[in-house]
Design a protein that fits this description.
It contains 20 helices and 10 strands. By secondary structure, it is of the alpha+beta class. It has one domain: Cytochrome p450 (Orthogonal Bundle). The strands form 3 sheets. A 5-stranded mixed β-sheet has the order 1-2-8-5-3. Helix 9 runs parallel beside helix 20 and helix 13 packs across helix 15. The radius of gyration is 21 Å and the shape is globular. This is Cytochrome P450. GO terms for molecular function: heme binding; iron ion binding; monooxygenase activity; oxidoreductase activity, acting on paired donors, with incorporation or reduction of molecular oxygen. It comes from Micromonospora sediminicola.
Length: 409
């Protein structure tokens, strides 16, 4: 693969792409549905069509094992990542099966549904703080603290520690969006990762000394009773649940509210017909999901997609948001339609790595959006759309740094 073959970073890692990646995704899906891509961090291959994306997400030749003998994580995450990122997200069966089985019961739909009253209370408490102001940064005041509070309570993070855990995760989430020099930015992220790793290791030890009825407590018991997890895996699994349990939900909520505010006819339709909300959540996830490209995979052999040879050892990205706008599967895919009949979108992934927290994410989204529509009448953007600040295009997540809104009270 030569530099001339690659889609240059200048096309994919710009403010314009961060604001609206879908025209570029459409062009690639038509002209180069499987293509090499240059990036600021690592070169990769990008798959953009729905059928190919769905197939790639279950292709055993595309491995998720980044920490095996070839140590692909060094290219992707760097040398300091193993303490937090060596988890089930970056593993293949049977390791993935073993790790996922331990935590899957904690996210069973029946257990998650039992949390609904508590999540509803958290939603209302956050909105209670917003209402007297008449305006808000919904990311800071609502979209981020809601799923962070929920996952911290599920894991068993003491309330007094929620604030600093949130601070560390936000340093990681917003990497690349500050005005600091790149070296300072990297150092800040590494420090946040280190502090979070030490904190979680200490919390796990505390749970062993004082067992509790929470997810970390259950993981500790799994280690102590049948050695299902090693000590290191226990910490990395806790990190994955903490980060994945709030990051994508927070970004989804921000993206969803912004999509509704910029499509006022859909917003009013949803207000007038609340029964549409479950279908609307699926449509909003399809329309502008928080994970534009699935986490990296590695080609374990030469692979052909669309007649294009992806060489062994290549990093492969499956462009979920591009696939979810494929006109071969979704009529008029660039139109937001909360009445759209629910289709097989890839917003929660596909295959063995299908989102473990899907029931929790849907429940949080339903309660959050329902309460915002009901309790904040006249909700509208507080700044012109062009001034809404987003995560940088190089971020693995698609989300907002801020969402200024106003409303009537």
């Amino acid at each position: 693969m030569t530099d001339d073959d690659k889609v240059p970073a200048a096309e994919l890692y710009t403010e314009a792409f961060a604001a609206d990646p879908y025209p570029t995704f459409a062009r690639l899906r038509t002209e180069r549905p499987v293509c090499p891509v240059g990036s600021p961090r690592f070169d990769s291959w990008l798959i953009t069509g729905f059928d190919d994306a769905r197939a790639a997400l279950t292709d055993p030749r595309l491995s998720k094992d980044l920490y095996g003998p070839d140590q692909h994580y060094l290219r992707i995450f760097g040398p300091n990542s193993e303490g937090l990122n060596r988890n089930m997200l970056n593993s293949d069966p049977p390791e993935h099966t073993r790790l996922r089985r331990v935590v899957s019961q904690a996210f069973a739909p029946r257990r998650i549904e039992a949390l609904r009253p508590r999540v509803a209370v958290i939603v209302d408490q956050l909105i209670d703080k917003i209402i007297p102001q008449g305006e808000s940064d919904l990311m800071h005041d609502f979209a981020i603290p809601l799923p962070m509070t929920v996952i911290c309570e599920l894991l068993g993070v003491p309330p007094a520690d929620h604030g600093r855990v949130l601070d560390w995760t936000q340093v990681i989430r917003t990497s690349g969006s500050t005005s600091r020099p790149p070296a300072e930015e990297r150092a800040a992220v590494q420090e946040a990762q280190l502090r979070l790793h030490h904190y979680l290791a200490d919390l796990v030890r505390a749970k062993r000394d004082d067992p509790a009825d929470d997810i970390i407590g259950a993981l500790v018991r799994a280690v102590d009773q049948d050695r299902t997890l090693s000590e290191a895996e226990l910490v990395t699994t806790t990190f994955l649940l903490l980060f994945a349990g709030h990051q994508t939900t927070a970004d989804f909520l921000g993206n969803a509210v912004l999509a509704l505010l910029t499509h006022p006819e859909q917003l009013e339709l949803l207000r007038a017909t609340p029964r549409l909300l479950p279908a609307a959540i699926e449509e909003l996830l399809r329309f502008d999901g928080p994970l534009p490209v699935a986490s990296p995979r590695i080609a374990t052999e030469d692979i052909d997609y669309q007649g294009v040879r992806i060489p062994r050892g290549s990093i492969v990205g499956v462009a979920i948001n591009a696939a979810n706008h494929d006109p071969g599967h979704f009529a008029d895919p660039d139109r937001l339609d909360v009445r759209r009949v629910r289709g097989p979108h890839l917003g929660f992934g596909h295959g063995v790595h299908y989102c473990l927290g899907v029931s929790l994410a849907r429940m949080e989204a339903e309660l959050a959006l329902s309460a915002l529509l009901r309790r904040l009448p006249g909700l509208r953007l507080g700044v012109p759309l062009a001034e809404v600040r987003r995560l940088p295009a190089a971020s693995p997540f698609r989300g907002l740094l801020e969402l200024p809104v106003t409303f009537t009270v």
